[in-house]
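dumping the sequnces here before i forget
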Amino acid sequence: MLQALEPARDPAWILDQHGFDPLRDSSRESRFAISNGFLGMRGGRTIDRLPQSLVAPRTYVAGLFDALGPDLPIPALVPAPDWLKLDVSFSALKAPLTVSDVSFHHRALDFRRGALLTESRIARPREIAVRLRVLRLVSLQCRAIGLQLVHFDIEADGMEAMLVASFEGLEFGLVTQRLEQDLGVWRTNVSGKWLAMAVAATLRVDGLVVAPKPLGPFKWSWNWVTKPGQAVCFERIVAVTRADSAEEDAGATVRQRLETAISVGWRGLLEAHETSWDARWRACDVTIAGDPASQRALRFALYHLNGAADPGDPRVSIAARALTGADYNGHVFWDTEIFLLPFYTLTWPEAARALLTYRFRTLDGARAKATRMGWRGAMYAWESADTGAETCPEHGIGSDRRVLNILCGTQELHISADVAYAVWHYWLATGDVVFLRDAGAEILLETARFWASRAQSEADGLHHIRGVIGPDEYHETIDDNAFTNMMARWTIRRGLEVAALLRLQWPERWAALSAAIVLDDAELQRWAGVADTMATGLDPRTGLYEQFAGFFDLESIDLAQYAGRSVPMDVVLGRERTQKAQIIKQADVVALMVLLPEAFADGAAAANFSYYEPRCSHGSSLSAGLHGVAAARLGRVDTAMRFFRQAAATDLADTHAAIDGGVHIAALGGLWMMAVLGFAGLTMDESGLGLDPQLPDDWTTLAFPVQWRGRAVSVVVDAAQRTIQATLTDGEPMAITIRGERHPMTKQTPLSVRF
Ligand code: IFM
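..and the predicted 3d for all of it:
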């Protein structure tokens, strides 16, 4: 077992931390979380958590939403019981061991193996010393399974030792249906979901199994007498099942999953898990030579991105904090489509498909929201949980600690274009005909229909979208947000394109779908008219898009004067003044530049970036990633690198950013985007992939794989040799555009182009 408990030595593959700091530990629990897209465990201490400790690991199960009560209808993820608790005690000690006896604590997140490894020493001079090595993982191969392995070295001779293994929070927020020694079934209070957990735990001393004493549900104790050099090994396998209705027998399923896992054994489980992680790393690893800090930040990001998705469950999506913390109640935002889907689409299409299928399964919720608001088509929830109904709260506490109205649920409409954008780009990158025909097309048509109904025709001959919130949430109830309008126009045009494609390629499907959603040629024609006359806010003389009507007239404030502030700008100036100023919360026109680069021709990208970047206060962790991509594409590499570091610090720095509510998964997606879409300059369109790299000074090489329409391509940008190598490692011949020139690629002939 000891070999399995050894963390990697290579610093590029681990994140580690010594000691215990109660002030920072809740942030570290987020950072050191383990997850497989179904189960998420915060990285709190376990065996080394002694009775007095305040920290508790938390287990999250994807999709286990419940409303807190009829008066509090916003659903939130309900934590499942924590299955890791262990207490060890020794009868001969004068007093039980406590946290103050912990003399050494080391926690290491092993990115490569997807495991959290801890080592601690608990010692009482002249009485006892215990060295504990612990591994904890949630299986990437079989997502229902978690594993805990513990090795004890006990320096004490002839002492009566007792180990107690138990679960915590058995009754926490769930209604117990069945509670046995090794199996529990619970249901949620309101939402009608079911959770089942089953566990098997074994203690071996010098290779011999010690008989456990059952102490009630999920609790056992083991007794033995210590001897120098004794090998004391504990293993616990847990199985977890979520069921969305009473018809699915969660208890029977979980029992069967546990039995399978027991028959495989911890070695087999560990091996299968590591093999699955290996496959993920082969499909997505980004290597950077010359800058170890960036390398580690990227690996940390990739670790959490790979742990956030479950390609096998299209009923769930990824929350703003993934499965690593309670912030935002486990709700799903545009973060997934704009900041995460690029990564999944290009490195893990199966996960991308599941995430987009979630949007298809919640399309009825989006249609209902549109109808309720008086519009047509599908208006996606700004915050989405399991049904697609809007779950954005109507009130909240602002950064100035005052209660405020939250208008995002009714005004932050761009989510409906963001979903369409992700669907289309998935289609472009994968050519997944079945998904487009059977699911994606309907999303595109219904979101296009929403926009065509939401935009109003006015006396100036243009269509306007009034009363919205753009990505910059400091400004509410604004008109003609350039991002929203341009993305709406783009969505309508994709709706028209997919209608034409279906009609031509799959006429039967077109006939059935257009009949089902009652869509005719006259309506399609109206859509085209709306798209052609959409107000964009573009000033053709300067190339600048006005972020929204009237933005240029707002008070101009020099943000440089506020450098070094520790609170967001809306706290510094107050909400009202911020709303009347050209202070942007996060990338807005800059976001548009990244998503629709074709709308920024002839120097417009540079002009808009130069105008908007100094006005952005980066009050959201999403902001740096898109600024970094935009800056890198403009060749402003130092600026881009500044944003890369800023995004990396969000979850990794212990300065002032508290991340106790979970990791910022969109910021982590932004790191991948900056490296691949920014510094490597990877683009995709109908004609295929393109590359136009601009590496930061320290990055001597940047290498990564991507998938393109069933092919695997690996890219190496070598700054020293000034070459771009692109190798088709799997699949049919294709072409790639490097710095504007198209090159054929076959499996036999790797491509090397000088730049
Ligand atoms: O989606 C974001 C939003 O853009 C800014 N506030 C936080 C949300 C969740 O990350």
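The chain has two domains: 34-282, 285-679.
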